[in-house]
Structures are given as C-alpha cells and as structure tokens.
Write a structure and sequence with these properties.
about 170 residues; alpha+beta; Immunoglobulin-like; elongated
Length: about 170
C-alpha cells in the first residue's frame, strides 16, 4: 500500500511537470509572446506641381493693346514637406530679331490686388517673381491664373516665344 502511494505521488509529480512544460509551449500564450518584427516606414519628400496646359498663346490681331491668353492656367500643388510657396516668373518673349520684355506680360491670381497696373484691374506685371500659391504640409491646393500681354507699335509683326517658370520653395 505504501508502495502504491509512493508510485501515485511520483506519478502525480511527473504528470504535473509534463503539464507545466506543455503549458509553456502552447502558442498564443499572452504571458509568453513569440518573436517580434520591427517595422520602419521611410516616406521621402514629395512635391508635385501640375499645370492644366503646357502652352498659352496670345493672338494679337489688330492694333497694339492688351490681349488675353487663349486660356487660363490651373496650377495644382501638393507636398508632404513643410510649409511651402510656389512662385512664377516670365522670361522675355523673343522673336525674329526683336524682344517683348517680361514686364509687358501680366498675371492675375485670385488674391492679386485689384489695382490697375497697365493691363486691367487685378493684373500685375511679371517683371519679378510672383507668388501664386502657399500651403502647409500634406495640403493640396489649386488656383487659376490669367495672363495678358501688352503690345506696342514698336513690336514688329512675327511670332515671339518665351517661358513662364514655376518654382517650389520650402519654408522652414
């Protein structure tokens, strides 16, 4: 009988040890988490400026004066960087041995002052860079720009070409 009790105690001890070891090996046990995978996301700076067209034309038919561009330009800017500003500037228009200076090309943006500087209310000469949009990180903004050209009797007949350049500036 004593022998049976000793066997029974020994059997209970072995059984509890096996249950304890098996319990430790059970997956999903929250007190014993499995391996951990570290995750890192690297998001590079992204700046996107799109224009609704890649060219505008001034059809100057008639006497010298102020002429509208054939279409407005929609500028869309998106950025995941800090605060930003987009400016534009015009190059002189060059033709067959003649030049129309950039200060005779005019721009009108929604927030342009409503004064008349030679091409109608709200139009400013493009003699220097003009701010067309400002924004903050993760902000996407859209604006519509209008352009005009002022011709004079000194402008020879012909085709003149130039550029309007857009520049993105990150503000600290």
């Amino acid at each position: 009988m004593k022998k049976n009790i000793i066997y029974l105690l020994l059997f209970s001890l072995i059984l509890s040890t096996v249950i304890f070891l098996v319990h430790k090996r059970v997956y999903g046990d929250t007190s014993h988490p499995g391996p951990v995978l570290q995750v890192t996301a690297i998001i590079e700076p992204c700046i996107n400026i799109t224009l609704s067209t890649n060219a505008i034309v001034f059809n100057c038919k008639g006497a010298p004066g102020v002429y509208d561009a054939d279409q407005n330009v929609v500028v869309t800017v998106g950025s995941n960087c800090g605060n930003w500003t987009v400016k534009c500037s015009a190059t002189p228009l060059k033709g067959d041995g003649a030049t129309i200076p950039s200060e005779r090309m005019f721009i009108k943006a929604p927030d342009t002052p409503n004064s008349d500087k030679g091409a109608g209310k709200g139009f400013e000469p493009m003699s220097a860079e003009k701010v067309v949009l400002t924004g903050s990180p993760t902000e996407r903004k859209v604006t519509t720009l209008e352009f005009r050209l002022k011709t004079t009797w000194e402008d020879k007949a012909g085709t003149y070409t130039g550029q309007i350049n857009y520049t993105y500036l990150a503000n600290p």
